Amino acid sequence: MTGSTHVALALTATVGVKWLTGFEPNLAGWSCVVLGSLAPDIDAGGSTISRPGSLARKLIPNWLCRAADAIGLSISRKVRRIFGHRKFFHWPILGISMIYGGFYFNNEPLAWFGWGYVWHILGDFCTVRGAPMISPLWWKDLSWSPIRTGSKEEHIIEAVLWAIILILFVLSIPLETREWLSTTGSALWTEALETWQKARNWI
Ligand SMILES: [Zn+2]
After folding, report:
1. Model pTM greater than 0.90?
2. Which of 6, 89, 111, 117 has CA 20 to 30 A from 44's CA?
């Protein structure tokens, strides 16, 4: 799966939890869900998480962006050489331990990072290559569906996930705020149309 699909999947799961239970991360927690959902691919040698500079492109100067990417890529290549892709860093037990540790040490960001991490591995489990779902008990990669990374099917799934996030986000806005937005929006629209008519008559 590509980085953006991993992020979309983890965010959909988090928005779903919020929708069902009312429990949601704070801003730091949301960032940890995103980072956790990209983190396991540090073993891929060139994935989104290996380019931290590009991730923060709009916030930092260009030279720092290139330096951060160079460091990230070199770490990622070493990790891949030592551990292999979709091996140790794709063990679900790592993410589960982070969630458990987050609760145990009362460290919410760690728990949300682990939550994003687990959803990354579940995402890889849904690709044809699969993921080592019950390692280290059994080393075999298990796969649940024949979707290929970067395929048309994956892009369709990603689009559906972003649509779900958007709908649940809009629905989570309090009713009064939504009503206020729609009345203010339509009043502004009418005003704009009237001004346009006046301008046309004047011309
Ligand atoms: Zn992965």
Report:
1. no
2. 111
